[in-house]
Design a protein that fits this description.
308 residues; alpha+beta; Pseudouridine synthase; Archaeosine Trna-guanine Transglycosylase, Chain: A, domain 4; 9-stranded mixed β-sheet; 4-stranded mixed β-sheet; 8 helices; 17 strands
């Protein structure tokens, strides 16, 4: 296809796709495949999932890409399966085995006693097999060359660690955590704390902020739909911002706000620092973007969506 054909193929598509990513696929590969299915001219994701992991991967099209970074800091929920008694160099099932140990007869009790130690704010050392960069190079590239570099511990938080199934040597639990937490590292640390080592065997992301896997679609399902039915699978742009309080403007304030001017009739105390903003246009409620209250107590535009 020539360049003119390619330009004609891509369309303006605005919205959020909640994708149920399959295992063995990178987040970028999933993004590009979904983008082609929607012929979306502009697309991005809200943070990657490891190829090993499955589950919720929110993808942004068009105007939604302006807010994709807002989910990077969102809390997340995972269903994890950990195998005890075996350690690997990557901390998950895809790595080479680096050690084994017999399971203690009281392992279930040890796990139960150990879990509370990992709740709350923790210092966690990122794994070498990660996308973090050292002098511009991803750590996983160095790790594959047998190079290990010092990594500074990072503050992470675990809000809940809920045991699910214990089927020796595998143990599954639901993990609710803040940004930047590595579940592979949690599995390794938990294995070390009970004395036999462990690695992550499965990981499925169930929630990102207010977005839930139960509303997600697989690539296979999307492929099976006629092209004109796929847009119905998209969530509105403001679904990315559901955790923010909402402020509503009248028609006059809407015009002012869309021109980049502050609105002073909204009380900051009612909403907090940052809000999603809705306005009125020709009698209809529309999403305008995100605003922030500044020290002058006026609501200033921070990021606006293009209006039809």
């Amino acid at each position: 296809m020539n360049d003119a054909g390619l330009k004609k193929r891509w369309q303006t598509v605005d919205g959020v796709l909640l994708l149920d990513k399959s295992g063995g696929m990178t987040s970028n590969a999933a993004l590009q495949k979904a983008r082609r299915l929607f012929s979306a001219a502009k697309a991005g994701h809200t943070g990657t999932l490891d190829p090993l992991a499955t589950g919720l991967l929110p993808l942004c099209f068009g105007e939604a890409t302006k807010f994709s970074a807002d989910l990077l800091n969102a809390d997340k929920t995972y269903d994890a399966e950990i195998c005890f008694g075996v350690r690997t160099d990557t901390g998950d099932r895809e790595g080479a085995i680096t050690g084994t140990a017999p399971l203690p007869p009281d392992l279930a009790d040890r796990i139960e006693r150990a879990l509370p130690r990992f709740l709350g704010e923790q210092l966690q050392t990122p794994p070498m097999y990660s996308a973090l960069k050292h002098h511009g190079r991803p750590l996983y590239e160095l790790a594959r060359q047998g190079v290990t570099v010092e990594r500074a511990p990072r503050r992470v938080v675990f809000y809940a660690l809920e045991p699910r199934v214990w089927a020796p040597p595998r143990f599954s639990l639901r993990v609710k955590c803040g940004k930047g937490a590595y579940i592979r590292t949690l599995a390794e640390d938990l294995g070390q704390s009970v004395g036999c080592g462990a690695h992550l065997t499965a990981l499925r992301r169930a929630q990102v902020g207010a977005l839930d896997l139960c509303h997600a679609h697989t690539l296979e399902t999307l492929e099976s739909l006629p092209e004109n039915e796929r847009p119905a699978c998209l969530n509105p742009v403001d679904s990315l911002l559901a955790t923010l309080p909402a402020a509503r403007l009248d028609a006059r304030e809407t015009r002012c706000f869309l021109h980049g001017n502050p609105v002073s009739s909204i009380q900051a105390a009612e909403h907090g620092g940052e809000v999603r903003v809705y306005g009125e246009q020709e009698g209809a409620k529309i999403f305008l973007g995100v605003g922030r209250f500044k020290p002058d107590h006026a609501l200033w535009p921070r990021r606006l969506v293009a209006q039809p």
